[in-house]
Amino acid sequence: MGKFASWLGASLGFTLGGPIGAIIGFAVGSFVDGFKLDGFNQEQIDYERGRQTQTRGRRRPQQSQTQSGDFEISLLVLASVVIKADGKVDQRELDYVRQHFVNMYGKERANSAFRLFSGILKKKVSVRQVCMQIREHMTHASRLQLVHFLFGISKADGNVTASEEEEIRKIAGYLYINQRDYVSIKAMFFNAVDSAYKILEITKSATDAEVKKAYRKMAKKHHPDKLQDLGPEHIKVAQEKFQKIQEAYEKIKDERGF
């Protein structure tokens, strides 16, 4: 229990309060009765949730840096929504989440995260409230990374169902990810004829100059350096997304011969 408490204690930033904090409290309580974390018990987490509800609608300054643990917790909560979107929990999707966390954080930390995830899966999540909390504290680049990961989960079983895609689209909207960015990320997981153009957020009618301009814009928007605050483990994952943009550009270049 000590290792789990240590991991979770280090993860608590903005995710302690509000709806995400309540979900964490429920998840931990589902396998540890009366568990307390650094002086915060379920009643205090519920209080924080109520306090956020009372202050909703007031503009609060966005947190300049999102801690790695906050991103981790947010990812687990949203992943649970997507995995349950088609009415079942597919083992391949669970394996994808586990392996992703092993790759990023190592086996010990991943085991703690997945233990919490098993509790989160039992909780009904208010997607809108969770996303409101995330977007108040997380940068646009980090929110783009969340959406990218969610598509990876849904594709883990080889097929993105309509219900999964609809859930991710809804999440993206609540996170203030515009339609162009959403379509671009989605195209990274489908081998459609025009996927390369969609990834660069342009159409086939774009001129060569417009293609080059679009690539520079996308490379800047999705550059891994924008996630430096989250730590080196997230830079590696961001590089995979960045590679998709580079591959899309190279494909169009080869087709057009410039």
UniProtKB/TrEMBL annotation:
Residue span(s) of domain J: 195-257
Classification via Pfam families: DnaJ, TerB
Domain of life: Bacteria
Region (Disordered): 48-67
Record SMART domains: DnaJ
Protein name per its UniProtKB record: Molecular chaperone DjlA
